């Protein structure tokens, strides 16, 4: 087998492996993060009611999130400072907050 073909064949499994985290991250966003947003954020930060000019409902996919990462860094900051959700609103559990913050840092 020629060296170029052998080299390409040996790279294919590595490329497929590297593609897996992106699919997993999308699944995490759809299955774990969006439900948290729906429960704790979208009552105030939706397309209809976007307090603070923040519409988190518009992020329908991980690709949309990555296109506007600055918003998510601000979300992380507000969570870490304890500013969001407001004290008079339902609060994320420690595990939910940790999951959301870790997810933002990983995107």
The total tally of domains equals: 1
- Rg estimate, integer Å: 18 Å
Strand share of the residues?
under 5%
| Form type | globular
How confident is the prediction overall: mean pLDDT? 83
Report the end-to-end length measured between terminal Cα atoms: 40 Å
Q: How helical, in percent, are the residues?
A: 55-70%
Biggest sheet details: none
Provide structural commentary.
The chain has helices at residues 3-40, 62-67, 69-81, 94-106. It has 107 residues and is mainly α. Helix content is 65%, strand content 0%. 9% of the residues are buried. It has 4 helices and no strands. The longest helix is centred in the N-terminal third of the chain and has 38 residues, at 3-40. The protein starts with a helix and ends with a helix. The model is unreliable at 11-21 (pLDDT under 50). The chain has one domain (24-106).
Relevant terms:
single chain; 107 residues; mainly alpha; globular
Task: Please sum up the structure shown.
By secondary structure, this protein is mostly helical. The chain has helices spanning 3-40, 62-67, 69-81, 94-106.
Question: What order do the helices and strands come in, and which of them pair?
Answer:
Blueprint: H1 3-40, H2 62-67, H3 69-81, H4 94-106
Helix pairs in contact: 3-4
């Amino acid at each position: 087998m020629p060296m170029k073909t052998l080299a390409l064949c040996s790279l294919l499994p590595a490329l497929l492996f590297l593609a897996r985290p992106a699919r997993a991250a999308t699944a995490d966003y759809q299955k774990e993060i969006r439900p948290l947003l729906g429960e704790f954020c979208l009552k105030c930060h939706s397309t209809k009611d976007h307090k603070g000019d923040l519409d988190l409902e518009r992020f329908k996919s991980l690709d949309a999130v990555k296109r506007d990462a600055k918003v998510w860094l601000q979300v992380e900051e507000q969570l870490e400072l304890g500013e969001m959700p407001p004290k008079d609103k339902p609060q994320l559990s420690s595990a939910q907050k940790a999951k959301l913050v870790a997810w933002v840092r990983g995107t």
